[in-house]
Write a structure and sequence with these properties.
It is a single chain. By secondary structure, the protein is of the alpha+beta class. The chain contains 3 helices and 10 strands; from the N terminus they run H-E-E-E-E-E-H-H-E-E-E-E-E. It is globular, with a radius of gyration of 19 Å. The structure holds zinc ion. Zinc ion binds next to helix 3.
Length: 196
Amino acid sequence: MKKVCLFLLALCLLAGCRGEPPEETPAEPVVCVPSEECFLCTGTWERNNVGIISLNTFEMAEVEVNRYDAAGELIEERAGNITMWWTQSGEDGFHVFVTEDPDRGRTSLTIEPGSDQWADRHKAAEFLCADCMENILPEGGKRKLGFGVIDLATGEIKLFERRLLGFSVGDFYVHCDWEEQGPDLRALIFYSPLRY
Ligand SMILES: [Zn+2]
């Protein structure tokens, strides 16, 4: 009987691993950096592009739909080509595979979250002030995914959520196509500013 109970317990534990994200476990209090050291409050990117960003390491992969020269001036001419590249955040963070078509203002991406699948507020606190933390990763509730999109014109961050099939951030629209049985995401990003 004991063996059957252990077997059932093991099955329950396995089932629990697959479903909803776990509740965040209450642990030591999160200590944020002051706003003078905050990644977002001190950020000055000033480019009308978005980047894929890790909420654990704040490493970022810029998607270059609008091209800028070394002096920071917008290049207003055709690129004439499509660019493919990939990068990884940190040692085991998200992988992103990118195909950029700047002349059409669109980019397709495949993101494999790696260790950035879930956000860790303790790690984020090394980069965010208390106000920015409250905006992006408020305390309590279900854990949030650990990667999102940053608008490099304003510093606004929107986290990916599996229930969202698309959202706007700044002048861009992000369409999301989630892997059914896994954590990966295929996304399309369109440059889509207000017309009038
Ligand atoms: Zn801040």
